[in-house]
């Protein structure tokens, strides 16, 4: 019962729960999770050591606890650096651990006062949390929800302020005043804030890891793995959204593109050459697009380009730019130039249009282009119901 009533019990239990959550993420390719897992384990050990204060020797409940706490924090920092693709300065970190451990032994070796030790650790811990806050906030992905990374950066910043407050408090104490406050008052509050705050920081790191996993899943669902173009699902969702939220006659053009004689490339040079041709075409297309245009791969050698706020003239200009670029810079497989063209079908949005009707009109135009000799652009007949004609 005394163990459960210990004020350290709840943060320790929370950290243990988060330890198991981090362990479940190790099998996923999220950089930094292993460092966070080890760091969380070391922090749990340090919190257990802190909880024995008053019943265990100070070398365990203070020196070991402080050193383990510092190592755990540095491991959290290492995980954050790895998460954002950066390398940790482990020689510097190891030097800090050794120096602070020796300084932590000072009161027993007669060369450091207890209050000075607390001040020194407050500075080091505050620097570590400040680096984490700055790192997470400055390197947060701009295309992800800001609150995910803002939570971690904010908690790290609050911990930094807490360490600064503890530094200021202990800097004003002398040994006699410190001795009278070792077990009650502000020191206990600072310890509790540090332990609870670090548990919150670990929780925010788990949220970041889950967001990275979600981003990877979304990339698989919404991004073509080979060319980097939008997947068929993502492209059609974007087209539907633009048509549903636009005026009755939105200025929007759709270009369906099919690479000519792509099967010949595969049959002659192999599927690896076909992949090179697809990647090359997608790269050229992206270079020719405007800022708001969307390139999607619908399947095989068929692509689609969505041109918002554009008419037929804009789409035809894009078609001309892309044909010229493909002619001037063909794909290269080994020492072989993979020269090919493409056929295209163009359709523009009409009042109260739907994705199915717009896609069907563009598809009919693409069919005409392919059967008229390939290597050309055909425009869909305005107002013609391609779905009804097909039926």
Write the layout of secondary structure elements.
Elements lengths: L1 H4 L3 H17 L7 H19 L6 H26 L6 H15 L1 H4 L4 H25 L7 H26 L3 H5 L6 H37 L9 H13 L7 E8 L2 H8 L1 H18 L5 E6 L2 E7 L3 H17 L2 E3 L2 E3 L3 E7 L6 H17 L5 E3 L6 H5 L1
Parallel strand pairs: 6-7
Antiparallel strand pairs: 1-3, 1-6, 2-3, 4-5
Helix pairs in contact: 2-3, 2-10, 3-4, 3-10, 4-5, 4-7, 5-7, 7-8, 8-10, 12-13, 13-14
Outline the structure in words.
The longest helix is centred in the middle third of the chain and has 37 residues, at 186-222. This protein is α+β, with helices and mostly antiparallel strands. The chain has helices at residues 2-5, 9-25, 33-51, 58-83, 90-104, 106-109, 114-138, 146-171, 175-179, 186-222, 232-244, 262-269, 271-288, 312-328, 355-371, 386-390; strands at residues 252-259, 294-299, 302-308, 331-333, 336-338, 342-348, 377-379. It starts with a helix and ends with a helix. Helix 15 links the parallel strand 6 and strand 7. The strands form two sheets. Strands 2-3-1-6-7 form a five-stranded mixed β-sheet, sandwiched between helices. Residues 1-5 and 179-184 have low confidence and may be disordered.
């Amino acid at each position: 019962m005394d163990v459960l009533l210990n004020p350290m019990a709840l943060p320790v239990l929370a950290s243990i729960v988060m330890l198991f959550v981090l362990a479940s993420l190790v099998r996923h390719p999220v950089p930094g999770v292993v460092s966070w897992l080890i760091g969380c384990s070391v922090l749990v050990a340090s919190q257990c050591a802190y909880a024995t204060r008053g019943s265990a020797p100070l070398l365990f409940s203070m020196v070991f606890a402080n050193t383990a706490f510092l190592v755990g924090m540095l491991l959290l920092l290492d995980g954050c650096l790895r998460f954002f693709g950066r390398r940790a300065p482990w020689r510097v970190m190891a030097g800090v651990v050794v120096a602070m451990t020796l300084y932590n032994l000072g009161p027993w070796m007669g060369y450091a006062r207890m209050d000075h030790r607390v001040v020194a650790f407050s500075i080091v811990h505050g620097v570590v949390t400040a680096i984490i806050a700055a790192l997470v906030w400055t390197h947060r992905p701009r295309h992800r929800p800001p609150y995910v990374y803002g939570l971690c950066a904010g908690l790290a910043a609050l911990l930094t302020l807490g360490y600064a407050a503890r530094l200021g408090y202990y800097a004003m104490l002398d040994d006699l005043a410190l001795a009278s406050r070792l077990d009650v008052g502000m020191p206990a509050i600072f310890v509790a804030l540090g332990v609870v705050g670090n548990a919150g920081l670990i929780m925010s790191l788990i949220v970041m890891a889950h967001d990275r996993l979600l981003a990877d899943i979304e990339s698989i669902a919404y991004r073509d793995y080979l060319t980097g173009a939008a997947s068929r699902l993502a492209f059609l969702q974007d087209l539907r959204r633009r048509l549903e939220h636009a005026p009755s006659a939105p200025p929007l053009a759709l270009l369906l593109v099919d690479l000519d004689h792509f099967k010949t490339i595969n049959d002659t040079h192999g599927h690896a050459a076909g992949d090179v041709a697809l990647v090359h075409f997608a790269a050229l297309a992206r270079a020719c697009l405007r800022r708001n245009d969307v390139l999607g791969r619908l399947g095989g050698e068929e692509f689609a380009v969505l041109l918002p706020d554009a008419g037929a003239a804009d789409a035809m200009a894009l078609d001309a730019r892309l044909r010229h670029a493909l002619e001037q810079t063909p794909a290269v497989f080994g020492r072989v130039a993979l020269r090919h063209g493409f056929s295209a079908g163009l359709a523009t949005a009409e009042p109260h249009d739907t994705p199915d009707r717009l896609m069907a009109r563009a598809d009919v135009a693409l069919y005409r282009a392919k059967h008229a000799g390939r290597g050309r652009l055909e425009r869909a007949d305005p107002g013609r119901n391609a779905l009804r004609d097909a039926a």
